[in-house]
Amino acid sequence: MFNRSLLFILKNMEQEEIYSKVLRAGRRTYFFDVRATKAGDYYLTITESKKFTNDDGSFHYKKHKIYLYKEDFTEFNTILGEMTDYIINAKGQEVISERHQKDYVKPDHSSGESESKEETSADSFTDVSFDDI
Please, are residues 63 and 49 in contact by the beta-carbon 8 Å criterion? Predict the structure, then answer.
């Protein structure tokens, strides 16, 4: 009985996942998964998984998930594009929060010299398209 239930669950999970993409971004990983409802329609889940390291060297992940349904795609895509464009136009492509990177070295301001920052180029997130779904 238990094995049959487990097989049923695994089979349904396989049917539920239709299409997936992964975006690795430092300590964060984003999973974009097209899934099927019980009625056979599709929806999108976006999962952010962030890795945390404990003092003893072990680690754990924290996950946050968004469920996005077809009826919301157009407005979601419009607002996402508007918000990402606003941020890029206001602050540019350069990542300001370098201090959160592992290899960050605090600048020594006592000498009066400022260190040059490497410009970090990333693909524009405003290129998100839901047309492929």
Answer: yes
Task: Output the DSSP codes for 5-72.
Answer: HHHHHHHHHHHHEEEEEEEEETTEEEEEEEEE-TTS-EEEEEEEEEEEE-TTS-EEEEEEEEEEEGGG
Residue 28 lies in domain: 2-103+118-127
Question: Is residue 55 in a domain?
Answer: yes
Tokens of 73: 């795609």
User: Domains in the chain: how many in total?
Assistant: 1
Of the candidates 49, 43, 44, the residue with the CA atom closest to the CA atom of residue 61 = 49
Q: Confirm if 11 and 5 have CB atoms less than 8 A apart.
A: no
Find out whether 98 and 104 touch, Cβ atoms under 8 Å: yes
| Closest C-alpha among 22, 62, 12, 79 to residue 45 | 22
What is the per-residue pLDDT across 59-107, written as a single tens digit (0 to 9) for each?
A: 888 999 999 999 999 999 999 999 999 999 999 988 877 656 666 666 6
Overall pTM > 0.85: no
